Amino acid sequence: MLRKTILYKNIIKGTCSSGIYPVHCSKVSLKLGGIRLVKNGLPTVAYFSMEYGLDSSFKIYAGGLGILAGDYLKGAKDYGFPIVGIGIKWKQGYTDQKIDRDGHPYDEYHNYNYDFLKDIGIKVKVSIRKRDVYCKVWKVDCFGNAPLYLLDTDLPENEDSWITGQLYGWFGEERVAQEMVLGIGGVRALRALGIKPDIYHFNEGHAVFAGLELIREKIEKGIPYEEAFKSVRNRIVFTTHTPVIEGNESHYIDRLLYMGANDGLKADKLVEIGGDPFNMTVAGLRLSKISNAVSKLHMKTANIMWANVKNRSDIIGITNGIHIPTWVDPDMLSAAAGNGDIFESHMKNKNRLIGFVKERNGIELNPDCLLIGFSRRAAPYKRSNLIFKDSSVIGPLLNGGKIQMIFSGKAHPLDDTGKQIISDIVNISKQYPKSVIFLENYDMTIGKMLTRGCDVWLNNPVRPKEASGTSGMKAAMNGVLNLSILDGWWPEACQDGINGWQFAGGYESENESELYEHDSKALYRVLQEKVIPTYYSNRTKWIEMMKSSILSTKDKFSIKRTLEEYFENMYEI
To answer: Which pTM was predicted?
Structure first.
């Protein structure tokens, strides 16, 4: 498939103001190791992430990893947790992915300027390919978030000013350079800021070069390597997100040495830490005192995946959560608690979504028809086309006005397979122009509209390849009923027929065609025998399920609970 890339310049994003999100409490108290500590007694955490989803207008995120990181910083601010974020100011961010007249995705890149970034007068230096690269440090704290410090190489004194250009835009040497800025530059930024973290939290493997920088600091003070490694390891924790081996990044040792990513360490030490090739996830597991997967099922999967990695940290399960003020309609929370008409509140959100779709796509959906949402990164294991497997089943439901569907999502700019998945969905939408919609250029705005306005949230990955799935949490807390494979977070939340539905019963198979056949039939059965009849013929039960969906998830899957578990189980010193 021919890739199309268009470059635009100089888009200025407007000012944001602090205090957008309400603070739920002014004092935090956790029970850690049997001792109750107020927030001032908690360890200070530096959180490293390649991306942060704080607001649709701030284009430094790609998808779920970044949105989780953004929610994490907002929760830290709300509840007074001593956390700072370290990231990168991406000049062009992630792709703006549009659909051409033939139904194929193409990528646009814009140069963004933001007038809400705070210039704190700090630059740090990282040696990349034996050239000094200067990184300006910006501060962002205006989205109701804990302080976030972003490194920026787009400076006139840099020959390599391009490094912080595109989020996930490149691989190979360019990716290593970006990760050196995040990791090595991030630690040096903390030093320049005078921030002395007790704990360094790496959100995925992109930040592991920070661990090498911490070791280098110790060695420079005359501490032997083994002692330095042990000391540093006691202050690092690691989160792994990717339950697919191929999705875990690795680099050749020679490349790391050429780039200077070894940060003074010899090749044999790199191999001890990350293997050969140097696997960033393996390095994260070995550099950290403890690691976490992002759901209980993912914990089992990750421990099986990495069972042969010697000298790695234990992988525990801390399920992701969401920042409720960002994602959940307060009217729905109030109605679920008995203060208002929950279905009326939901229909307001549904009609807003219908208006949004009409404005974007020119198609007006029927508010009385069951509306199913599906929004995921375009990857084969997420199976966005599963529901269309048997046209003799799904066709009459779409043509007969029983269901409508809205899809959205992006593929990586270099992923032709993912782009073909999107093209297939767009072509299907042309077959059912009044019933199937694809919203191009997925972002946080679309995510919020869909997880508030749909009636049902569909999720059908190949189990157990979905690590968590926070979009389902957002939907659930908005009274949008989950219809999902038992994967990611859903096995912990699902009360089948009470707060949503499961299908396929946790079935797993290495035979892809057999699995597709089994899961599609299970989906059709639940859809036809339970979901559709309940929606049209038993409104009382549907409303009770909406209430149950909200009440059973709003505390258990909030970012507050996630943060509390991090401090209790990972951050103790």
So the answer is: 0.93
